[in-house]
């Protein structure tokens, strides 16, 4: 094998060396200008591929953060709306207690009814609150139109019962605002388990003031019972099949206990009057207010009408108390979700710091190292240029002269 040395070969080697040094310096200049170690994927294909995956993870965390901001805003608005609704319930309770004063005249009661109507309108407006983007808070997933509508004096719900779940961190979901049906409509009556009421056709002045479970008289089996007065001072208790389960003498203000239940009736019931007790059902707050307003708007000109009005007021007080509890429970549920969002935010922040630190180690330039290498390449290029200049003055012909 012959190794041939020629002037052209030496020139080409020198030029190639200078070009390589200039290319390296150009690359270092790009790194210094951008502050990035990976100017293109060819610099380190494995690191570049890993960095793309980490970029996606960081972008996903940012998407989760935006999700969290949206649902946090909606839950905050729910909290504000329910706080105002709770204040309204307190005001309704005050007005109802005030209306229960027998000294008030018919015009006084009508004035209270008028104020209750205003409160009801305000409550309806709260139920149709929006989140500031045109979406209704309490419509479930059907939130493009007002969920509560007043038609022919009756409030109806057009939303759905779906509660969204939003991902705010990897595999971490929080619940959005409760649908309005769970807050304003499905409110337990009575004490939440039992409910009692006076029959609409009562002719006496008996008023059902309290009722509840009574362990001393047995265990309530969940059935409905009716206390039926056979005379002004005697009663019988019948079950749902009209079977008499107990009889007794009546005294106003004393508890009547039977089958794990107690009832207290005040006033003077008439023979044939009846009072029922059984498992609590549910009623929407708007219907409760409608009944209360109607009772106050109706003139109570005789003791029987007054007793009927007082029974409605007593029932309304119980139902409003349950509505207040419902609002408090909804606020507590919303608060738990807000806490979950805060916890998810802390998790996102920790993950984001880790990912960005790893990305920085892969991509960000070590300026001290890069500047030192640049200076070294600059010196090397100057040396190559000096050698090339010297080689221009040399020729193989000089060696054979």
TrEMBL record:
Which Pfam family is one of those matched by this entry?
Answer: Flagellin_N
Q: Identify the Gene3D superfamilies for this entry.
A: f41 fragment of flagellin, N-terminal domain
Matching SUPFAM superfamilies: Phase 1 flagellin (SSF64518)
Residues forming the Flagellin N-terminal domain are 5-142
Print the keywords alphabetically.
Answer: Bacterial flagellum, Cell projection, Cilium, Flagellum, Secreted
Concerning InterPro entries, the annotation shows: Flagell_FlgL, Flagellin, Flagellin_N
Where is the protein situated, by its record's location annotation? Bacterial flagellum; Secreted
Q: Per its UniProt record, what NCBIfam families does this chain match?
A: flagell_flgL
The family line of this record is: Belongs to the bacterial flagellin family.
The record's section on PANTHER family has: FLAGELLAR HOOK-ASSOCIATED PROTEIN 3 (PTHR42792:SF1), FLAGELLIN (PTHR42792)
Stated name of the protein? Flagellar hook-associated protein FlgL
Q: In the UniProt record, what gene is named as encoding this protein?
A: flgL
């Amino acid at each position: 094998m012959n190794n041939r040395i020629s002037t052209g070969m030496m020139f080409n080697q020198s030029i190639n060396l200078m070009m390589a040094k200039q290319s390296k310096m150009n690359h270092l200049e790009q790194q210094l200008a951008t502050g990035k170690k990976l100017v293109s994927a060819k610099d380190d294909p494995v690191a570049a591929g890993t960095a793309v995956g980490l970029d996606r993870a960081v972008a996903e965390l940012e998407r989760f953060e935006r999700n969290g901001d949206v649902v946090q805003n909606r839950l905050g608005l729910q909290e504000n709306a329910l706080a105002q609704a709770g204040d309204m319930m307190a005001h309704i309770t005050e007005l109802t207690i005030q209306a229960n004063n027998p000294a008030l005249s018919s015009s006084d009661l009508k004035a209270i009814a008028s104020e209750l109507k205003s409160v009801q309108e305000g409550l309806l407006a709260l139920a149709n609150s929006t989140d500031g983007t045109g979406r209704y808070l309490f419509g479930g997933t059907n939130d493009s139109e007002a969920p509560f509508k007043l038609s022919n004096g009756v409030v109806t719900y057009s939303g759905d019962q779906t509660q969204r779940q939003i991902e705010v961190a990897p595999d971490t979901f929080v619940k959005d605002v409760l649908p309005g049906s769970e807050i304003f409509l499905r409110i337990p009556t009575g004490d939440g388990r039992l409910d009692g009421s006076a029959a609409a056709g009562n002719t006496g002045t008996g008023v059902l003031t309290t009722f509840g479970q009574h362990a001393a008289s047995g265990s309530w089996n969940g059935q409905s019972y009716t206390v039926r007065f056979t005379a002004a001072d005697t009663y019988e208790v019948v079950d749902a099949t009209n079977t008499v389960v107990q009889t007794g003498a009546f005294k106003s203000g004393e508890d009547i206990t039977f089958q794990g239940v107690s009832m207290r009736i005040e006033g003077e019931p008439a023979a044939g009057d009846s009072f029922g007790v059984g498992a609590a059902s549910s009623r929407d707050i708007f219907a409760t207010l409608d009944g209360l307003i109607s009772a106050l708007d109706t003139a109570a000109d005789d003791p029987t009408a007054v007793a009927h009005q007082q029974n409605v007021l007593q029932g309304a007080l119980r139902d409003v108390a349950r509505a207040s509890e419902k609002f408090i429970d909804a606020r507590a549920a919303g608060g738990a979700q807000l806490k979950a969002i805060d916890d998810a935010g802390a998790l996102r922040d920790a993950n984001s710091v880790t990912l960005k630190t790893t990305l920085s180690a892969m991509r960000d330039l070590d300026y001290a190292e890069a500047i030192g290498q640049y200076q070294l390449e600059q010196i090397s290029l100057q040396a190559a240029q000096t050698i090339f200049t010297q080689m221009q003055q040399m020729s193989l012909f000089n060696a054979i002269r």
